[in-house]
Amino acid sequence: MTRALIISGHPNLNESIANATILDAVATALPEAEIRYLDALYPDYRFDIAAEQQALLKADVIVWQFPLSWYALPGLMKLWIDEVFLYGFSHGSTSQLNGKKLLLSFTTGAQEADFAPEGWFGHPLDAYLLPFRTTAQLCNLDLLPPIYTCGVGYLSRIEQSQIHQQKEAAREHAARLVAAIKALS
What we know:
By secondary structure, the chain is α/β, with parallel strands linked by helices. Helices cover 37% and strands 15% of the residues.
């Protein structure tokens, strides 16, 4: 059985629809997976580095679950990487993460069509993933194809029908994530 570690990088999961639904569905489908809710564990942003590194060491697959925020990781998750992925632990000649799998699982507020050369942002979504590919390469992590869902931001959940649509999209996202993790066994 693949040991999955899911790092929830949403800065305030209590205000989330999509990311909270994804994590709830994954927790139900994969009760053996460890889910670390950074916002709940570290509301003061003071990470227990040893505990976080130990969790990473036990995992076969590491999932970063987050909302794409300003075309990157939310600040909480970026700080977690800055403080936990230390030279000698995550990279360098004594790296301890070699060969583990990294799976990006994220949501965006913008529609998928906005992430196209002719779309609003003028770049495909894949262009925003370059820093993740570079991080995986530096840490000798096997970066798996990302799982993402677009169009589930806070601006598109004003009416009850929109919230229902976001939850449905999030449950479908969770099913794809669970299938990807199970396929690694």
